[in-house]
Amino acid sequence: MDISQFNYDLPEELIAQYPLPERDGARMLVLDRQAQTWQDRAFRDLPAYLNADDLLVFNNSRVFKSRLIGHRAGHTGRVEIFLAEQLGDTWRALVRPGRKLPPGTRVEFAAGFHAIIEERLEHGERRVRLYADNHWDAIQSHGHIPLPPYIRRPDDTADAERYQTVFARERGSVAAPTAGLHFTEDILNQCPARRAEVTLHVGLGTFQPLHSQTVEENELHFERFEVSQDTQVQLKDAARVVAVGTTAVRTIESLYKFGNAGQTNLFIYPGFQFQRVNAMLTNFHLPQSSLLVLISAFAGHEFTMAAYRHAVKENYRFFSYGDCMLIL
Fold it and tell me: What is the CATH superfamily name and number for domain 67-142?
């Protein structure tokens, strides 16, 4: 398939720049794959679509403050290091401006906290070594929430809470599993379904476009995932598995394809045979992105694109802080 088949027109004003005042206040477009119909509902209606023998599966990965803002030693110009993945004692990272940050550059963040650029990697990335008494404490104290590039504002104190799910536990993501952002403890308690958790640490690939014009020729970045034995048993026994977010979908399907832990670069596109996911909750995704391709694989390409056009027409809010879609 040509990647242009996954394009749609989106007015910039529909890209949500801030979360809604209430975490569970989003609209929800409900798609029925069998009937090929949709309904405009609210996220707070979600419990009515769930049954007691359903299994609601969440990604419990926690976002860390992966954006570090500093300056080159001896200079005042702003530079940014975006930590992507820990590699033993070093990190794989994106840096800006790249041309001014060759190997050997020292970047200062705060007193007692700096980095050395050690090596150029593929795709413009760098290997970076951090220096601090406690790396994670320094990152937490001086880092910034990694808001996606389509949110055109600096992060603020509210983002530290709102760009994190209420069930986030396992630190390691550089982007939130955004379908989970809508849940509150009250909504969780109203859901009749059983609950289970998986872990997939969202990497830089979630922000990167597909590079090949032919969908099937693209490859995704590897991301770390884990599924406990208890969750595996629940997945096996559930009447219907409802995945919360594309990261939960990829984790569950990776489990059935690769095993219960490790790394996955599973790319789901039309023609993929889903092994265990029966329904999913998801936000709206960027045009020509791997996530929109995944949704099209699950709901059908034409049906998905028609639903997206409807969402645009009805002024749904898009992307990370936007509204959501329940696909049954």
Answer: QueA-like (2.40.10.240)
